[in-house]
Fold this sequence. Notes:
Helix content: 10-25%
Structural class: alpha+beta
Low-confidence stretches: 1-75, 82-94, 226-230
Amino acid sequence: MEISPASPCEQTNSGRLSTASRGKFPNGTTSSCAYLERKMRSSRLTVVGLGSLLGPRKPFGSFDRNRKTANNQHHGSCLVLEADRDEDMESVVTTGGVTWLNGGIWRDGETPAASATLFQDRGFVLGDGLFETLVVRRGQPVLWREHIDRLLATGTVFHFPLPVDFPEYAQKAAKVLLEYANEPSLQLGTLRITVTRGPGTTFGLDAPNEPSPTLMLRLTPTNRKSRAYPDRETAWIVDQPRIDTNSLLSGHKTTSSMWRILAHETARHHGADLALMKTLEGDIGEADTASLFAVIDEIIVTPPLNRGILPSTTRAFVIAELEAATRGLEERLIFPDDLDHAAEVFLTSSVAGIRALGAIDGRRLPEAVPVSKWLDTNYEAVDGHF
């Protein structure tokens, strides 16, 4: 399979991806992405992208580490997979539309299909997608299997057309990305896995009869905030939006994140770093991007999963650590008043780790945080692997 001169994978002499068929972003930059194509009638995987980085029809695992785009040095690396597409990358979209995107005009029938994917992708148009975010430590993903299992479970709930061999395929794609991005700034990084239902034929809700999921993996450097005083994060308990414990959307990582963004922005408006979110019944379920724990009357408590919260991989890690150390733990409702006399309140998430809050609604929390410090030390010691 040859790469067309009009392909978005074309590479210029400067090492950056050509914008001849994609258009530039408003700031004049382009993303640095390698594209993966899965052949329709074969389980053999090929990698294309970044010009002739690998050459046509080379399998995974043969990388020239000396050929990196300038963007990768500062903005991370990205792999985009369009699963089970037409094998001809030069095919065009012929629905008759015209699109403006970030300063460029794109006409259907003249745009390579690989370039036009974004215009029709249901993840972009409808938020019809799933994602996972995990930490990369010393160049390896932490809790990889747990994240993939959760993504598969969410895919089942929302009837996502993931292939049977998706776990193996995603692992190979991640290994390609990590090998390609083998540089000091990315040894501690954030790996975002996004899966959408792929392009649709219309702007309506009907899914295509033969969906072609899109998989994107993006690796960026991690800049964790210091959890030493006085730099601990602050939280604000927001009244809206609230967690609906009966909603299928609650407890799953989908790309439809507007309600969490609204909660976060509300907290920021009040001068806090993040939001603590209530359920419809008034108890606190979780933070906008993290699970909630508190030490109350010498007992560590956390909301149960039936409160519509995410089954966090880091939450599960914390519970396992506490059980192994025979520390008391209760899964029960936590109301705002409960936090008024908490000895510690801490959050858990894959990338940020385990960090104690410094204040809630402007009220300072105790400075001594032995439980969260102990747990975070244990989490930091976990080695990444597939």
